[in-house]
Amino acid sequence: MERIWLNGAMHAGFFLLLAASASRLVVRHQLDARTIASLALAGLLAALYAAGVALWDRLGHRGRLVWLAMVLAGWLVLVELAPSFSWCAVPLLFVCLRLLTLRTTILAAAVLTMAVIVAQISLADRFDPSLVLAPIAVAAMTVVIFWELRKAGILQERERLSREIHDTLAQGLTSQRMLLQAADRVWEGNPGQAREYVRKATEAAGENLDEARRFVRDLGPADLAERSLPDALRAMAGEFRQEGREYPLEPKTQAVLLRVAQGALANTREHARAGRVIVTLSYLEGEVTLDVFDDGVGFDQARREPGRGYGLRGMRDRLAEVGGTLVVESVPGEGTAVAARIPTR
Q1: What is the pLDDT of residues 81-121, one digit of tens each?
Q2: Where a domain ends, among 94, 123, 152?
Q3: What DSSP string runs through 143-164?
Q4: Which of 7, 10, 13, 51 is deepest in the core (most CB within 10 A)?
Q5: Beta strand pairing call for 287-294 and 277-284
Q6: If DSSP codes are grouped into helix, strand and coil, which group holds residue 279?
Q7: Which pLDDT tens digit goes with each residue over 143-192?
């Protein structure tokens, strides 16, 4: 969501700066042939830029690069005709940062900065060092800030995909493995039962594939597409209790609770060796809670075992996105209880 907002702001900034430059040109210059040519080129540049934004997904990466080259070329010609259009350099640099590698972005930044410096010098009545230093400083800060934002976005997306893989794909693959192992054990003596296990494994594979497609596109869980959260939990858990009167929850809250339940059950299946697992969803005044308890082997929370802890961290990260918290209680030999709390309106 933040990336969409930032892209929209930069696109809007380009059109506003283009309009501001055009108005400055009309106010400060006579409507001669050069001014008319500049305004016409500015209109063509606006149309070209708008077409690229509208057809962004259809263009593909190569098409976007061609579009960017055409926009930059048109802008450079426009700045040569009317230096005030150099103000559009910052949003254009942002587009370069989206599409180009760091090396080519630095090259593009150098070209844009040089054009701005030349334009500012031509507009000034006398030379001033700030005409050179200020554009260089702005370009350097823009590249560093946006590149760091890009890196942060990549890391955030990796973290999101890691959580989804742990809570959905890992659980689904574990179920498929158990079903196929069961089919292998009874294949000789009971082929009908073995085929049933294989059929269920095939269904689980299809559900996993659907979940993978949805979380790659950052959509909500498939289980919530056609059913309520209690129904989805009831379908997932062999034993499920619902307490309190159900009230509407925001889609993000429902998705987080379902993923937390999936993650807790995945941890139970992988580590707990439990004979019984109880999932409880409670609708309380001002908050909704999800509790997952198993009677498995438990673990010592003071000790960090290799390979343990990622699932719990992922649950905490999910809950933090909606203002929720996670409490884990476990004692070796006495099972584990996972309690999620999310405030509601």
Answers
A1: 999 899 889 899 889 988 888 889 889 999 999 999 998 89
A2: 123
A3: HHHHHHHHHHHHHHHHHHHHHH
A4: 10
A5: antiparallel
A6: strand
A7: 887 777 777 766 766 776 776 676 667 667 777 888 888 888 888 888 88
Res. 235: pLDDT tops 70: yes
pLDDT at 217 over 90: no
- 264: closest CA among 223, 293, 229? 293
Residue 286's contacts (CB-CB under 8 Å, 6 or more residues apart) are: 343, 344
How far from 189 is each of 33, 179, 180, 195, 202, CA to CA, in Å? 92, 16, 15, 12, 21
Torsion of CA 194, 196, 201, 203, to 10 degrees: 160
Alpha carbon distances (Å) from 244 to 67, 259, 292: 57, 21, 17
Q: Annotate 233-262 with DSSP letters as a single string.
A: HHHH-SSEEEES------HHHHHHHHHHHH
Burial (CB count <10 Å: 0-12, 13-18, 19+), residue 40: exposed
DSSP type of residue 270: I
Neighbouring-strand partners of residue 278: 293
pTM for this one? 0.53
66, 90, 123 - which closes a domain: 123
The dihedrals phi and psi of 344, each to the nearest 5 degrees, come to -125, 160
Domain region containing 249? 223-345
With respect to residue 169, please indicate whether it lies within any of the assigned structural domains: no
In a domain, 159, yes or no: no
The per-residue pLDDT for 2 is 46
Does 340 map to a domain? Answer: yes
Name the residue among 238, 260, 249 with its Cα closest to residue 326: 260
Pair 119, 229 in one domain: no
Question: Residue 337 maps to which CATH number?
Answer: 3.30.565.10
Tell me whether residue 111 is in a domain.
yes
Asked if residue 229 and residue 343 are part of one domain, the reply reads yes
Give the tens place of pLDDT for each residue, 13-37.
999 999 999 998 888 888 888 899 9
Number of domains within the chain: 2
CA distances from 277 to 62, 118, 177, 272, 331 (A): 52, 71, 20, 10, 16
